[in-house]
Design a protein that fits this description.
The protein is α/β, with parallel strands linked by helices and about 150 residues long. The protein is built from four helices and eight strands; from the N terminus they run βαββββαβββαα. The chain has two domains: about 60 residues, 2,3-Dihydroxybiphenyl 1,2-Dioxygenase, domain 1 (Roll); about 80 residues, 2,3-Dihydroxybiphenyl 1,2-Dioxygenase, domain 1, CATH 3.10.180.10. A four-stranded mixed sheet has the order 1-4-3-2, covered by helices on one side. A four-stranded mixed sheet has the order 5-8-7-6, covered by helices on one side. Strand 2 and strand 3 form a beta hairpin.
Length: about 150
């Protein structure tokens, strides 16, 4: 055996992969498409791509199960500005959720969280940590300044 086993996330876009790839390229500046597999008629069947170094395989075949919230892709953002940018891009034609979760226009669920959130929810002062956790549970998009006591 000459190649190591790889773990990639497989996403079935139910016929909307042609829309999803340019959307993700616009939202994620480092998105890379490694390859596309086309059917005999030229239509897109699958695409291998990466976002922030995470590898995906997208399938374009119609039908299949819909995405749901039981699995989400987590984005750890540095600062409020990047959190806001990603949140707004993903929810513009998608749906906001609770505690940083949102669903993009294709039904993929994401969790957009600023890395600074951990300073508050993991604060060694139990009162401050409890306050941050309670505030977090009331949020849709996470707002760092609202986690302070």
């Amino acid at each position: 055996m000459s190649q190591a086993t790889q773990l990639r996330t497989f996403l079935w876009f139910g016929g909307r992969l042609d829309e999803a790839l340019p959307f993700y390229r616009q939202v994620f500046s480092d998105m890379v498409i490694h390859g596309e597999n086309r059917m005999a008629d030229g239509s897109l069947f699958t695409a291998d791509f990466a976002i922030y170094g995470h590898e995906f395989i997208g399938m374009n075949w119609p039908g299949g199960p819909a995405f749901n919230e039981s699995i989400s892709l987590s984005l750890s953002c540095d600062g409020q500005e990047e959190t806001d940018r990603l949140w707004h891009a993903l929810t513009a034609d998608g749906e906001p959720g609770r505690c940083g979760w949102c669903t993009d226009p294709f039904g993929v669920t994401w969790q957009v969280t600023p890395i600074q959130m951990r300073e508050h929810v993991e604060n060694p002062d139990p009162e401050k940590a409890a306050y941050a956790m309670a505030a977090l549970r009331e949020m849709t998009k996470i707002v760092i300044r609202d986690l302070y006591v």
